[in-house]
Amino acid sequence: MGKIIGLSIISLSLIAFDFYIYKAVLNIYPQWSAVKKKNFKHLWFGYTLVLLLGVVISLTFTNIWLSLKTVILVAYFITFVTKLVWCIILFVDDIRRGAVFVKRKVVTEVPITEPNRDAIPRSEFLVKAGMAVAAVPFASLSWGVAYGAYDYRVRKQVLAFENLPKAFDGVTIAQISDVHSGSFYNKKAVLGGVEMMLQQKPDMVFFTGDLVNGRANEMRDYQDIFAKIKAPLGVFSTLGNHDYGMYEKWSSEAARNKNIADVKKVHALMGWDLLMNENRRVKVDGEEIGVLGIENWGKGRFPKFGKMEDAIKNTDDLPIKLLLSHDPSHWRAEVLQKYPQIDASFAGHTHGAQFGVESEYVKWSPVQYVYDEWDGLYEEGKQKLYVNVGYGFLGYPGRVGILPEITIFELRRA
Questions:
Q1: pLDDT digits (tens, 9 = 90+) for 357-399
Q2: CB contact at 8 A, 362 and 332
Q3: pLDDT tens digits along 286-341
Q4: End position of a domain, from candidates 147, 170, 189
């Protein structure tokens, strides 16, 4: 119900934007003939009506082709953002014109001079400027779908620990997170990302949750691809908030529970060692470290199924403990406060909002106003947290600035 209400509000806003922009365009082209105005009207509003009809159909008929549904929802999202930006520019012009009107009619009697017909009127300039500025999100969001969604990158990070066993000095770990297989529409590209990770020849692999958007059957076409992920010291995984099917409609609680069981089964079929509030001992040349994994634990509205007390059982003798915990808010809310024996945590969840700026000198995303730790390595005292911005995508089927990530860690003795 919440999704329907939200979609209705966005759709009504889109229609309002259309009327606002339509009126502004006609105001700057009074010379248009009646036929030209009529054609523009039909094209302008017709596109929106067809788009809204497509959204309704794609959400009503669940068996519609995923690729077609993706195209419709992407077009809907990009259209809304583009027209919103344009309307903001037009609103600025309306404020200006309102101020001029008040000055002329209320404050002082300012004589109205004949405008310079060789210069473009300011209102016309702002309408066209709004069109130009609106083209920026249109172009960038379109690029994010065409190129950003599967533009995988390998990020390398050294993790140094004072108490790292000598046998683990130089061991490498690959991390991926937030696959969200229900959003994929390009199997070849997904396979390419997996092969890119395997080319790094990691000794261990961590997957930190959100394998699906909500339903286990989303992995049907991708299970064989991710089953290719193997590592000499093991592939360890955990669940994210979406893996519990909490955002889907189920006929009964039993149906949801079966789906969770099916998600767990997928991990097993791929050969991934799913850690549900438990731990594993990883041994190299007679020396050991611990890999711990908990169920989802997040602040606010997100589920708190994780049980750290179960995960740390019988690990006191291990010199290094590495924790897989999907939501990075868990680190500051609980790990730092209660579990100083955790040397490093690995998380995902934020996606880096799939939008932002990331360079050697600047790192920004709107998600940073929600999460203190949202991308990359964080350290406090002797404890570390790494947040992977995700392999897949959710909602907007693309990425702008914050690209899909494969992280390669090298363990080192400090």
A1: 888 888 888 889 889 999 999 999 999 999 999 999 998 888 9
A2: no
A3: 999 999 999 999 998 899 999 999 999 999 999 999 999 999 999 999 999 999 99
A4: 147
Looking at 147, 170, 193, the residue that finishes a domain is: 147
- If asked whether residues 325 and 346 sit together in one domain, one would say yes
Q: Which amino acid is at 394?
A: L
